[in-house]
Backbone:
């Protein structure tokens, strides 16, 4: 009874705690915040100077006494204190009018994280002001967010390509029949572009530039019209600023290795799928979510490699956050699909 009264006065929150971006869903309001998972701190201390958009603008541009860091790596917490500070900042930002009541929070986490890593997420959220913490695996959240009927006795296959991890799962009757969490995703795409520019042109570029190239020109499948773009960076030989022109086919070649890792993981997942559920996938196909789903032609390539229909979610970037939000309204559903969390 008391918890129901408290719930009436608090804004329950769903969080997609991503390596690249954090999205926050507030009950009855929808997604109210999308900001980079970046924190700027004073060098040698844990003093937070900026969080989110403000901190990302500092990446690669800070003086020696300021460090812009990403506290999550490969989908898990790499820096506990900074993650806690980032969560507290985001929770306060969306919950400021009801600060005297602590919210119930649903957080999406990679399906492959360890018990130790789960505890770190739980404790960070609790320390940041959560009344109750529920953890849900990212592929389950993404599947719910895009509207797949996860409660049915039939196969639902989701591939969620985020910043730090690619989550691949076959879901039936509220549970993951088989899942793989691969630490190859958007960040690896960016790093592959950085390495390609260094190898092919002796040009050093930063991760922000690599991300811009990926978004603008990245593709997984040959395009009808190939494009080119000018890239600015530092010449590794002369040490001076330099501009070169690269084509979309070169960038596709640069992305080949991480793309092949994801394709192979999809194949392994399909091989482990029970025969009865495999039959369902012939008609239902595979759903793509996450930022990586926006890579041009990725759906075509996966379809060609698997022989299955592939669909891209209507709003792939919001799928996980939408899933956490829907669970806030359906507590019975939440209990069936969530991991044990912390109640305080």
Residues:
């Amino acid at each position: 009874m008391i918890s129901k009264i408290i719930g009436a006065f608090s804004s329950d929150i769903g969080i997609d705690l991503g390596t690249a971006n954090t999205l926050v869903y507030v009950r009855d309001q929808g997604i109210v915040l999308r900001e980079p998972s970046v924190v700027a701190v004073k060098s040698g201390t844990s003093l937070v100077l900026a969080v989110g958009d403000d901190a990302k603008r500092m990446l690669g541009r800070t003086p020696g006494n300021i460090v812009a860091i990403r506290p999550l790596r490969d989908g898990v917490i790499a820096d506990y204190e900074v993650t806690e500070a980032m969560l507290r900042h985001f929770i306060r930002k969306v919950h400021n009018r009801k600060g005297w009541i602590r919210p119930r929070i649903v957080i999406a986490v990679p399906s492959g994280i360890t018990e130790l890593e789960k505890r770190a997420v739980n404790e960070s959220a609790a320390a940041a002001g959560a009344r109750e913490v529920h953890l849900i695996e990212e592929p389950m959240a993404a599947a719910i967010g895009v509207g797949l009927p996860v409660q049915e006795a039939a196969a639902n296959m989701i591939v969620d390509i985020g910043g730090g991890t690619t989550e691949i799962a076959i879901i039936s009757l509220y549970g993951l029949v088989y899942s793989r969490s691969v630490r190859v995703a958007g960040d690896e795409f960016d790093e592959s572009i950085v390495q390609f520019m260094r190898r092919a042109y002796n040009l050093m570029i930063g991760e922000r530039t690599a991300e811009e190239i990926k978004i603008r020109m990245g593709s997984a499948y040959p395009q009808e019209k190939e494009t080119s773009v000018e890239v600015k960076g530092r010449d590794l030989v002369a040490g001076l600023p330099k501009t070169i022109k690269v084509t979309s086919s070169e960038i596709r070649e640069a992305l080949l290795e991480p793309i092949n890792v994801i394709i192979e993981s999809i194949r392994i997942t399909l091989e482990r799928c029970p025969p009865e559920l495999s039959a369902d996938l012939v008609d239902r196909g595979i759903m793509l979510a996450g930022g990586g789903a926006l890579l041009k032609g990725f759906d075509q390539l996966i379809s060609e490699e698997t022989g299955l229909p592939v669909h891209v979610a209507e709003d792939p970037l919001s799928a996980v956050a939408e899933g956490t939000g829907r669970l806030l309204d359906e507590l019975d559903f939440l209990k069936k699909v969530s991991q044990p969390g912390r109640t305080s």
About this structure: The chain is about 40% helix and 30% strand. The CA atoms of residues 165 and 184 lie 5 Å apart. The longest helix spans residues 80-95.
